[in-house]
Design goal:
Blueprint (H helix, E strand, L loop, with lengths): L5 E10 L6 H19 L3 E9 L3 H9 L4 H19 L6 E4 L3 H16 L3 E11 L4 E3 L4 E3 L8 E3 L7 E10 L5 H10 L4 E2 L1 H12 L5 E2 L1 E2 L7 E2 L2 E6 L1 H6 L1 H4 L7 H7 L3 E5 L3 H14 L7 E5 L2 E3 L2 E2 L10 H20 L6 E2 L2 H31 L11 H22 L3 H22 L1 H4 L6 H22 L4 H10 L39
Helix pairs in contact: 1-11, 2-3, 5-6, 11-12, 11-14, 12-14, 12-16, 13-14, 13-16, 14-16, 16-17
The protein binds ligand ME8.
């Protein structure tokens, strides 16, 4: 399937004004599954994540907490954002912070280049600014405030009042790229995904593109504008550049050439920054635009976008402490159609954990291994003549291997997992129908028993490989119990169905122990 091509996947870099919640972790696990899948297909893979540390939002939070913004960012990164990587078992290759020298210096280089080539000019701007979004808002994007904010205009995303700003700033000639952007969306229909996101972006650009204010002079927490140190770079202009500064832009041409362009996964809240502003910036600098931008949906709690500011934020550890990182990764990626909004509820999580992970997959693995131990002294038996039922399982393994990879290429992560789950269900049905416990009672059916157990063990091996990007821990345990060679994540995922069990199995503890009560 793969020719060992390059695959670079990113998440947004997250603001360090607060600690992570499950919305941030959702994008992270999606990117992680893609990265692990591609690595297992032999692609030259790079997975980047990190933190966005400049701007007014961080400055205000730090000030309110009586520390410098750098101290605040250092604390949050070390105490909250880096620990998240372990909480949900991320395999990121790099973690960039926008306060690092490798980033700041090359943001300045990029800006200077645009200035020298005439894409930056001085101008004045007056408009409503939302510090939560770190963005100037159009009047049409605002709502009338209620309660404490009656009589004021509030941001539709943060429900907090916007501020009227009037500044003399540097501007990026973004409007010059409207035609080129529209041509890009036309020529490369997969550039912005899903389709609904593409339509939204196209109509936004068609309605007219303004130039973009890219500096601020009323505070100094940011990257200094190289030719005018009384200004700092607008936080979004600075932040977007992380995707190239992290892979060598301005300092290591070979690395940059090797990695860029990227697949960007972002929440739909920040789609325009990635699908409009970012490609325009790259076009101005004469660099390649991203490979694609995928805007996923929101996690909803009680029907609303989950957010810390609305006090509906749930910390990832609230879930992983009870259910584990595998269940976290599985639940959000399986239950939510990637690209659409999805409601989170503890009941749904608990129900899926029990029926799909504990009863569906975990129980299958335990039963099959226990039977090999009981009936064959732990030695994986060879297969005899195959029946249609055995051949059907082999066919499903083969189809799942191929179809899941195709779904991953389309970024349909939920579909890839769903396809693999057809094999879980088929194997459970196969065991029920073939009744190995009954075959074991009849010495004349010994060969049939061995064929059934061989087929089931091979199926489990295929599942271990195909699910390893998602269920990172359970599949490693299963692979060891099956006597698989080396680490499961080193087995080629596009050849998952080819694994032939041999040797001995070792006893397996429940992969997903039952959790009796809801964690609510
Ligand atoms: O926007 N559902 O950072 P941020 C799903 N620093 N995903 C969610 C979510 C929810 N309820 N809430 C947050 C920024 N997310 C900028 C990005 S990139 C150059 C700069 C996820 O900390 C989702 O990925 O506000 C969303 O886009 C991101 O967190 C916003 O994170």
């Amino acid at each position: 399937m793969s020719d060992g091509s390059s695959f670079f996947v990113t998440t947004p870099i997250f603001y360090v004004n607060d600690v992570p919640h499950i919305g941030h972790a959702y994008t992270e696990v999606a990117a992680d599954v893609l990265a692990r899948w591609h690595r297992q297909r032999g692609d030259d893979t790079w997975f980047l994540t990190g933190t966005d540390e400049h701007g007014q939002k961080i400055l205000r939070t730090a000030t309110a907490n009586g520390v410098t913004p750098q101290e605040w960012a250092d604390k949050l990164v070390e105490e909250a954002w880096k620990p998240l990587l372990e909480t949900i078992d991320l395999s990121n290759d790099d973690f960039i912070r926008t306060t690092e020298k490798r980033h700041e210096e090359n943001v300045q280089k990029f800006l200077q280049h645009l200035y020298d080539t005439g894409y930056i000019y001085t101008g004045e701007y007056e408009g409503f600014y939302c510090v939560g979004c770190e963005e100037y808002k159009q009047p049409g994007d605002l709502l009338d405030g209620e309660g404490d904010y009656a009589g004021q205009k509030v941001c539709a995303i943060h429900s907090k009042p916007v501020e009227l700003l009037h500044e003399k700033n540097y501007f990026f000639k973004m409007s010059a790229f409207a035609e080129q952007l529209l041509a890009l969306y036309e020529e490369r229909p997969d550039f912005v995904q899903p389709e609904s996101a593409r339509n939204e972006v196209m109509s936004f650009v068609r309605s007219g593109l303004d130039d973009l204010s890219i500096s601020r002079s009323s505070f100094d927490w940011g990257v200094k504008v190289p030719w005018d140190e009384s200004h700092v770079v607008y936080v979004w202009f600075d932040a977007l550049l992380n995707y190239v500064t992290a892979v060598g832009y301005g300092q290591d041409d070979a690395e940059f050439e090797r990695r860029w362009p990227a697949t960007h996964l972002v929440g739909k809240d920040i789609l325009r920054f990635h699908a409009v502003i970012w490609p325009a910036m790259l076009m101005a600098a004469g660099l390649q635009v991203p490979h694609r931008v995928f805007g996923h949906g929101w996690l909803l709690v009680g029907g609303e976008k989950m957010s810390k500011s609305k006090l509906t934020g749930i910390a990832p550890t609230q879930i992983t402490d009870t259910f584990g990182s595998d269940a976290f990764r599985y639940y959000f990626l399986r239950a939510i159609h990637f690209g659409q909004d999805g409601s989170f509820s503890w009941e749904d999580l608990h129900a899926r954990y029990t029926s799909e992970l504990a009863n569906g997959f975990g129980n299958l693995a335990s039963r099959v291994i226990a039977m090999v131990n009981r009936y064959c002294d732990g030695v994986i038996p060879a297969a005899g003549d195959m029946t249609d039922a055995d051949a059907a399982i082999r066919a499903i393994e083969r189809t799942a291997t191929a179809t899941a990879s195709i779904a991953i290429d389309r970024l349909a992560i939920h579909e890839a997992i769903g396809t693999v789950w057809e094999l879980v269900d088929a194997l459970n049905g196969y065991i029920t129908e073939q009744e190995p416990w009954a075959l074991a009672k009849d010495p004349e059916k010994r060969e049939r028993l061995e064929t059934v157990l061989n087929t089931a063990v091979r199926g489990l091996g295929t599942l271990a490989v195909l699910l390893s990007p998602v269920l990172t821990k359970a599949t490693a345990t299963l692979w060891t119990a099956l006597g698989g060679d080396g680490a499961v994540q080193d087995v080629r995922i596009d050849q998952a169905w080819e694994w032939t069990g041999s040797g001995t199995v070792t006893p397996l503890e429940a992969l997903f122990p039952r959790i009796e009560t809801s964690a609510e």
